[in-house]
Every structure is written in C-alpha cells, then in structure tokens.
Amino acid sequence: MRTDMLIDGEWTTGSGTTFPTLNPATGEVIAEVPEATETDVDTAVRAAAAAFTSPAWGGLLPAARARLLLRVADLLEEHADEMARLETLDQGQPLQVSAGFSVPNAVEHFRYYAGWVTKITGVTAPLSIPDVDYRSVREPLGVCGLITPWNFPLMILVWKLAPALATGNTVVIKPAEQTPLSALRLAELIEEAGVPAGVVNVVTGGPETGRALVRHPLVKKISFTGSTGTGREIGAECGRTLKKVSLELGGKAPSVIAADADIDAAVQGNLLGGLLNSGQVCAAYTRFYVDAGRHDEFAEKLAGAAGSLRLGDGLHPETHLGPLVSAEQVAQTTRYVGLGRREGAELLTGGNRPDGELASGFFFEPTVFAGVRQDMRIAREEIFGPVLAVLPYEDPEELAGLANDSAYGLAAAIWSRDIGTANRLAREIKAGTVWINMMQGLDAAAAWGGMKSSGLGREMGWAAIEAYTEIKSIWTSHN
Length: 479
Ligand code: ADP
Prior knowledge:
CATH architecture of the largest domain: 3-Layer(aba) Sandwich
Number of helices: 15
CATH class of the largest domain: Alpha Beta
Strand order of the largest sheet: 13-14-15-12-11-17-18
Helix content: 25-40%
Bound molecules: adenosine-5'-diphosphate
Strand content: 15-25%
Mean pLDDT: 98
Distance between the termini: 62 Å
C-alpha cells in the first residue's frame, strides 16, 4: 500500500509530520500518511509547472496523450478488485458500491476523455472585416489544483483528473485527509502507464495543505468538490488571485412522489437514492414530497425497506450499508436525528448507532422520519448521513415552490406516470440535474454540477473540456 506522496516523479514523505487514516468500519488506524507542508506543495506545483511546458508532456501529440489515458484506464481496470477493496477499507463504502460503481465509473471516465483528446476543436468564423481569416483554438490552462472529498475519493478525483489531463494540463491533487489511499495508488498506476514525471503530483494533508495549493501563484485553476462553506472560502481566494475555479458543493435533493406514482418503484428508487453510500452523496435524495393521500403508505414502506438493510463492514460482500466515514459524521448525523425528534417529526425507523460488534466502527442505522415540515432543519440542511425525511404535500401546484425553497440546487428527482407533469416540474425545479422515475444516474457524457449554493461550473461531457481550457482567437491578415 502506498502511503508516501508523489512529487515530481519521486515518492516522498515530504518535509512535515504525518497523520493517520482510519478504517471507518473498525476505527483502527490503517496507515500514517504525510502532512504536506507549504514547501512540499510549492515543490509539487513547480514540478507541475515545469512538466506543463516539457517536451515529454507539453510536446506530446494528441493521439499519444489519448493512448496514455487509455493505458491508465486499462491499468485501473486490471487492478479494479484491489482498488475497490482499498477504497472500501479507507472510505467504508460497501464493495457493492466500490467494485460495482466507483471503480468502473472511474475507468469509463478515463476512456471517455481519452476519446475527446483528438476532438478538441476551435471554430472558424466569418468576421465582418475585410481580408482576415479567423480561427479559435482551445489551450490548456497550466497547473490545476484538484481538491477532493472523502465520499467517493477515487471516482470524484477521476472526474477532474481525466479531463484535466485530456486537455494537456498538469495537476497537483490534494485528496481528503480522511481517505487519501486510493489517490496514491492511482498515482502509482498513472506512473506505470508512462505519464511523465511531474504531470500528476499528489500532496496529502488537511485544509492547510489545500489552502497552500489554492493560494499558490503558479496554480491556474482549482477544481473543488466538498462542502459549501469550504467552497465559498476557496472561491473567494480564487477571486483574489484570479484563478479559474469549479466548485461542486452541497445539496439537499428533493424527490417528488406525485399522486399517480408507482409507489413500490418509488420506494425502491428512493431507498437506493437516499441511502447509497450511507447517504454520503451530495445528490442523495433526502426530502421526499409525497401526495398527502399516499404519504403514510410511502413512508411506512420506505421505513420497512430501510430497516431491513444489512449494516456491516463494507468488505463483507453481503453488506448493503457501510459505516459513515468518520466519528465527526456520526456526531453530525446524531445531532440531526435529535433535532428532527425535538422539532416533532415522527421517527419510523433507525435513529441510533448500532451496538454489538459494530459499536467500534462509525455506523449509524438507516433512519426515516415521517410527517416532516418544510421549516424543520432536517428538511433544509445537508446531513450527509442515512437520514430520510418524508413530507406530505396537499397541492401539486406548490411542488416546484417547495422543491426550490432551498439554498441548494444540485439535483432533484420526480416520480410520476404523467410525462407532462414530470417534464413541467423538471423545467421548474432549479437544479443542475433532474432524474425522472429513476435513482441517480451518472455518466461521463452527462454534464454534472449545481445551481445556487451547490456550486459553479459543470463537470463531465464537453463541459469539462471547456472547464480545463481557454479559448485563444487567432487572426491572420491576407496581406
Ligand atoms: P468536510 O467538511 O465535509 O470534511 P470539506 O469540504 O471541508 O469537507 O473538505 C473537502 C476537501 O477540501 C478536503 O480535501 C479538505 O482537506 C479540503 N479543504 C478543507 N478546507 C479547505 C480550504 N480552506 N482550502 C482548501 N482546501 C480545503
């Protein structure tokens, strides 16, 4: 297992101290990892800046760059089992999630962006000026700082890394301090694939390491996924130094279950949509607006299904729900469950940490509240734990207003058999993504990101190519 950092093609413990990364299923220390200092960050950024203009990377022809990304995808796929187990060990997500979703999605992202490398075109335009030709080209930005969260450490990193490399940038990665191991292993595979030294650097550490990266004058862009508060701080700092910035932040996704919805399909989709990765998903369905006439039926079925999920160590193949990532997340979830109770919501299932053999890990029971009101904090604030809130609504005309009555706008779901109602709501809801009659889907080809306090910019699809390039206009005189 790699526990040192990759800076300029060298594996190093850096110039600072170390910090532990834990197995959330047991609370035990897996490994000690370096805490990168400002000096380490500076060395990594300078290495990335030098690699950007080096013949080995900057001079690489597009077809060769595409082949490198395909090679990374192949290596990741060859090591999929190992990578999934590492992710589960460090993050807690069940193997069903890491092996079934996170790693394959990361592989597909590398392949998808390998495909784009040879298709990043500009335009020619007919200017209303005599005797000139005009064309635009897309150029890479330079050194990009990629700061990632702990909920899907490998997959979310690759959402940034694959397009950043496809467009010819170099990167310094700062993985979340809770879950650094899969990023380090990926960096090793990238090295093995033949990506030149300095193109991909990884510095491990906490917020101070992240801050040093955001402040660094040679960094041209920051791509961040994480909490809204941290996103605001990063956005402000990028404003000061005029770096480009993409922010994928928190969410409080509404899921609307119309009177005509297929309740059993909605229960199943919302169960998975709400509890995937124990609710530690920025697009988790967390507030369910159910027609008042069907509220009790939906809530009881949802609670029954949630209560029957198997909680356990993610490494056990039968586990449905793993632990939360840390003691902090357990404390946060516990606090919100207490708030829900005090505010008068009806607790149908869960609400506690399990005891017995799971007591030493960071586990929390899947929890369903019914009869939740719009003004309750469990209906308004991001919990990032396995807590689902069911709210009755009386009038379908108020649905868009209820869904939009939130600081966030990352994602939403609509369950209805009436295609007209579903599509009208999809247009009215302010969210970066709307899923109709399905749990969350993600695909490298579908743009991803948030409105309002859920962020700035889009990842995936062509949008990510734009996010990692700048347009240059070139005019040529005929004379
Ligand atoms: P959470 O609060 O959910 O643990 P954060 O959004 O604070 O998550 O952290 C997400 C990522 O951002 C992590 O890699 C973390 O180390 C990093 N980070 C936290 N604070 C800052 C900051 N002020 N500047 C740069 N990176 C930061």
